[in-house]
Amino acid sequence: MSEKGKIGIIGSGLIGQSWAMLFASAHYNVVIYDVNLEQVNTALEKIKSELITMEKNNIIRGSLSAEQQIERITGVIKLEEVIENAILIQECIPEVLAMKQQLYDQIDKIIGSLTIISSSTSTFLPSVLSEKMEHRNQLIVSHPVNPPYFVPLVEIVPSEWTEDWVIKKTRTIMEDIKQSPVTLAKEIPGFALNRIQYAILNECWHLVNDGVLNVKDIDTVMSEGLGMRYAFLGPFETAHLNAEGFMNYTERYSNSMFGVCKQFKPAPKFEGPLVTVIADQLNSITSLEEIPNRRLWRDQSLIKLSQLKKYNH
């Protein structure tokens, strides 16, 4: 047992594997659970291969070697074994509410009063996940961004009954593994990242629908414009720097901003003929067959960006 203790990972898919590597990089002992041994062993092999490759490319996280990190990660197929003596359980099973609630019902019968139950969900509010649990005050959402190993944001979302120690300790652990946590003061559908993302997507939909820009040009607005800024600064600090402080920014631009925003349309439902129009344009940029290669390019670009951000902090 390491001096930092044991982390349990429930679900051995890509997100579970990423979490395992993050915790191991920070000297935690990690136990991965899944329903059958083949899935667990496949995950352990993928983690081993990934860590060795990242070490060769000098992008592995933490001060431990790949071999030392691999030694810290083991697998089990009994739920009791992943939960026993864990300081935090990170749940990473598919986004199916009935599956999650069934799992939490099982966890509830086993878990002690000092273990944090942390969900990777991007969909469900912690109160919905935990409402029927005896240990509901120990459940919290820690929503990562894919791929978590290179995109460090974690949204920590408590329910109204999540205890303060759970919120504080979860954030401390996320900071300890060198992620960048934000703690929501209360739960809200979509959390923060998806709400902001949806606002952008909604306006992009309208710009295509109204014939203002095509898909490629809209994506250029983000990748070659706003995205360049937002890779290092958020929207509020961007505004702060684009004038003589935020007070000055509002004095200069609040009226014109309000005038534009009053023209915004209601949230669209992404359905109907425009879905095909957008999909066809995207397929002409990146065909369905090319998506795996494009994802790989995206992830490699994120690696380079994360290294650049690390050196510029």
UniProtKB/TrEMBL annotation:
Domain 3-hydroxyacyl-CoA dehydrogenase C-terminal residues, every copy: 190-259
Single GO molecular function: NAD+ binding
Residues covered by the 3-hydroxyacyl-CoA dehydrogenase NAD binding domain: 6-187
Database matches in Pfam families: 3HCDH, 3HCDH_N
Location within or outside the cell: Cytoplasm
One GO cellular component term noted in the UniProt record for this chain: cytoplasm
Top-level lineage group: Eukaryota
Family the UniProt entry places it in: Belongs to the 3-hydroxyacyl-CoA dehydrogenase family.
Protein name in the entry: L-gulonate 3-dehydrogenase
GO biological process terms, semicolon-separated: fatty acid metabolic process
Organism for this UniProt entry: Cinara cedri
